[in-house]
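Target protein
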Amino acid sequence: MELWSGSSGRAWQDTIKPFLIFSSICYVPPICETLHSVCTEILIKRGMNTMKTIPLYMYSLLKTIPESALPVGFQFRLFQEGDEKHWARINVSTKEFSVTDAALERFNQEFGSHLAEVKKRMLFILNEEETPIGTATAWFGIWEGRVIGRLHWVEIIPEYQGKGLGAPLISKAIELLAVYHEEAYLKTQTTSQAAIHLYKKLGFEPAILSEEEKEGWSFIKGS
């Protein structure tokens, strides 16, 4: 059941507005950044936010590998044959794709010819029943004309979000990236503020490559 079920759109906006105002003038950065990010992303999901969606990039030299342990009952494992169905299921659950076939098609386009690398670079979080419920890939890509690491496809199914899995998942992926690369980047967007603040805590910094991205970063509180 949603916290705000039963409220009209206007009433709901009026309810959350004071929290957004408070977060914009708050002087305790960890608290106000988190509050602002959560409120903004709730509004986005409700279709009530007018923030312009702009793709953004972040970059890390991978000099410091963050440590963040998984909660009790969860474990990591690397990609195994047949795990593309789990990757697709997770990404459909987070609305990256509307149907499983589209997710599988994207998997095959992006990873199908690199399965040997996928088995070394794609992570899953398993729940207590050893079912994959989250994924991240320590991939690679072209950055300013050279091949470097890429933190890619970080997703956790909604039922397990907010359970302290995001930081351990990203930290483990960064650890894997550092095995193969000395630097890495990731792609995000202005509407993913909570994720952006987490990436910053784990060592990634804004990489401004265009005027549009400069505008985008101006929307991110604390950037």
